[in-house]
Write a structure and sequence with these properties.
The structure is a homodimer of 202-residue chains.
Chain A (H helix, E strand, L loop, with lengths): L10 H19 L6 H8 L3 H8 L2 H26 L4 H16 L8 H8 L4 H23 L5 H21 L5 H18 L8
Chain B binds a DNA duplex (30 and 30 nucleotides) through helix 2 and helix 3.
Chain lengths: 202, 202
DNA sequence: CGAACATCGAACCGAGCGGTTCCATCTGAG
DNA sequence: CTCAGATGGAACCGCTCGGTTCGATGTTCG
């Protein structure tokens, strides 16, 4: 990353380095909160290099968000598999990982959803939609393997708790939001198993 | 709103008219998505008038957000009181109102939380925090009058479901998020009443 | 060595931003 | 009628933005 002056260290490596640095800066300051010039200056990279690798600021943002989505999914799946085979334990692990994330001092909400909110045109909304899809898949799988009949509905309730807790941790400085969301999710799973299949009544 | 040329219709009325128009525009386009010039042109108001009434764009934003928070609270309280005295019915009414809001074609998430996410410095975050406080008060009151022992915890879980459902309705185009959140909230309340007081186990 | 390549640094561009000012116009109160 | 006040319209200001271009510097490979 020092990148002397005319180093041909490896374009792919330069690209990865930019991606890594830009991820943090765009997350902390917001997509429109930092310009390309300051971005480049802070990363120690010239604008020409950035534009050769990503084409535009929007291209950089898209790459950052997609990489972030990948990283988050890997991190969630790792927590789930580390929790063993028990659906209850896996569900608890998802929310424990959430709590751990919320406690990081640099936490500022979900970077992907924040981006989609800031840039309400552009690729961020697509990335966010896809990202939520994948998170829902994980939760649906847990619910299904727990043997409930309405796994899809239950998973959506888990997901609402998950993103709701993240928003509260951010905008309400609620340090116990993830823990309470976990207890709520476990209670819902328990209730869904004892109660066979509640017909949806509006 | 026609406001011929030099009309002294009433400064307060002008202010209210600006506030009303700006609320919609800033919500739809985002705080940074529309400039003061376009804002004024669309509203049919001169920049001088806007700056005389609100001092700065940030002042306008603050006024818009505070008015919005007031309006939302009034709307929630109206739904709650219209639901009678039963805590269950009141809780259901809160989420039914949510569903109704999500179905509006102009729905774009919670304007206050969106603003706080877009403008992560500035007054929006304070308004958002206060707004969540007040929403939590309503839910805590419902939980308390339902006779549960851990009303505060339960209310935070309701709030997480509420904001989570709103985020999913926006970013995931999830039209049934509010309904599922309602069912989850009711199940949690039911479970909290049958189960006396679950000791918080981390 | 020499050609190709990647990079930095800086200058530059047009556009849009938030904000200010001036003035002609119109209204309502005295 | 007259005058103070509120307004619209337009020009203007300094600044920052995303993006482009150019030359100098250094590395890698044949």
């Amino acid at each position: 990353m020092p990148v002397a002056k005319g180093a041909t260290l490896d374009p792919a490596q330069t690209r990865a380095s930019i991606l890594r640095a830009a991820t943090g800066l765009l997350y902390q300051r917001g997509l429109d909160g930092i310009g390309v010039a300051e971005l480049c200056a802070t990363m120690g990279v010239s604008k020409e290099t950035l534009y050769r690798h990503f084409g535009s600021k929007e291209g950089l943002v898209r790459a950052v968000l997609e990489a972030r989505s990948q990283r988050i999914m890997a991190w969630v799946l790792k927590a789930v598999t580390a929790a063993g085979d028990e659906p209850y334990a896996q569900l608890a692990a998802v929310f424990d990982a959430l709590a751990q994330w919320h406690e990081e001092p640099t936490f500022r909400g979900c970077g992907i959803l924040n981006a989609a909110t800031q840039q309400h045109e552009g690729p961020a909304r697509l990335v966010a939609h896809h990202h939520l899809d994948r998170q829902l898949d994980v939760l649906t799988d847990i619910a299904r393997r727990a043997g409930v009949s309405n796994a899809t509905h239950l998973a959506k309730q888990f997901l609402a708790l998950r993103v709701g807790a993240t928003v509260l941790a951010d905008h309400h400085a609620d340090t116990e939001a993830a823990l309470l969301a976990k207890q709520a999710a476990l209670a819902l799973l328990r209730s869904a198993i004892t109660t066979p299949a509640p017909a949806p009544r509006p």
